[in-house]
Amino acid sequence: MTSGYTQGLGIVCQTLTAAGAGRIALEEPGDPEARLIVARAGLEPVAVRVDGDGIVVDELGRADAVRSS
Predict the structure, then answer these.
(1) CA 34, CA 48: separation in Å to the nearest integer?
(2) Would you give the distance in Å from CA 33 to the centre of its chain?
(3) Which residues face 23 on adjacent strands?
(4) Euclidean distance between CA atoms 18 and 11, whole angstroms
(5) Peptide bond between residue 29 and the one before it cis (omega within 30 degrees of 0)
(6) CB neighbours (10 Å) of residue 55?
(7) pLDDT tens digits for 45-63?
(8) Which of 29, 46, 59, 69 could form a disulfide with 65 if both were Cys (CB 3.0 to 4.6 A apart)?
(9) Residue 37 near residue 6, CB atoms below 8 Å
(10) Nearest to 23 by CA among 47, 7, 2
């Protein structure tokens, strides 16, 4: 349980950083606060565009957001 989206995202990002992740995909346009949370956790935010259905999944590979640091 968390107190909300901000705390939950922070915990996920800290966990990813501790596991060796270096980047994370974020929706673009998206919540500017998410970029700050990601950066504070030591991750590089990678913008991936959205369409009417949400994040464009086909662009996740191009974003190379799964690369470890």
Answers:
(1) 13
(2) 11
(3) 44
(4) 11
(5) yes
(6) 17
(7) 999 999 999 889 888 887 7
(8) 46
(9) yes
(10) 47
